Amino acid sequence: MAKEKITTLFFDCDNTLVLSESLAFEACAELANEILSSKNIADRYTGPTLLSAFVGQNFRGMMLSLCTKYSFTLTDAELDSYVDRELGKVVEKLEKLAEPCEGVVQELHKLHDSKVYTMAVVSSSALSRVQASIKKVGMDVFFDPKHVYSAATSLPKPTSKPDPAIYLHACKELGVTPGECVAVEDSKSGATAAKNAKIPLIGYVGPLEGEERVEMRKVLKEECGAVYVMEHWSEFPEALKKVEEAIA
């Protein structure tokens, strides 16, 4: 039986294409602390500590994780209200301050010009946040608007990675099988979503430094099965070659 050929590239957005996580988590921390205060819980988060605890999750997923961690509940109406407020805060920050990950624009340019692969963005974040991020850094020219998928917005029931639903949805929408796709992810939750969807994985640790980079490289490689882990986007051609060799 012939092996599948790679036809489709899936890119996570936050801290994979765009350096958006720290900006977003500043806004998220403000609302998380408001919720904790309202529940008479003394703990408080900063943007970095919230990022460390919940990287790769969208805000809805983070709030549900907080509910579990601190044993409290939010009504659907309360959760929806916080999600709406968070989105507005984050989009405002991204529209002003978002920057691309180092080297990614050059690689996307080459891929787009080659016309060899279908390219899509597959994110846990709300669609308007993803659109704001890629537009601010000029990446919207590389992606058909119909090929930007959000686990928080694009699915009948909102979810978040590591649930593979958004990857499976993207495959269905594009009419491709998981085996002919490649996912690029920077977090355990995102990489796990790709793994559970049976999509070959390239890891990316560029925004991390020191021990965090070493640890995430290990997680992506050993726990999530990444074929290749990049430290810089200039490695992408080699990473893609390794994936194509692995499935040949």
Automatic annotation (TrEMBL):
<dbReference type="Pfam" id="PF00702">
    <property type="entry name" value="Hydrolase"/>
</dbReference>
<protein>
    <submittedName>
        <fullName>HAD-like domain-containing protein</fullName>
    </submittedName>
</protein>
<dbReference type="InterPro" id="IPR023214">
    <property type="entry name" value="HAD_sf"/>
</dbReference>
<dbReference type="InterPro" id="IPR036412">
    <property type="entry name" value="HAD-like_sf"/>
</dbReference>
<dbReference type="InterPro" id="IPR050155">
    <property type="entry name" value="HAD-like_hydrolase_sf"/>
</dbReference>
<dbReference type="GO" id="GO:0008967">
    <property type="term" value="F:phosphoglycolate phosphatase activity"/>
</dbReference>
<dbReference type="InterPro" id="IPR023198">
    <property type="entry name" value="PGP-like_dom2"/>
</dbReference>
<dbReference type="GO" id="GO:0006281">
    <property type="term" value="P:DNA repair"/>
</dbReference>
<dbReference type="InterPro" id="IPR006439">
    <property type="entry name" value="HAD-SF_hydro_IA"/>
</dbReference>
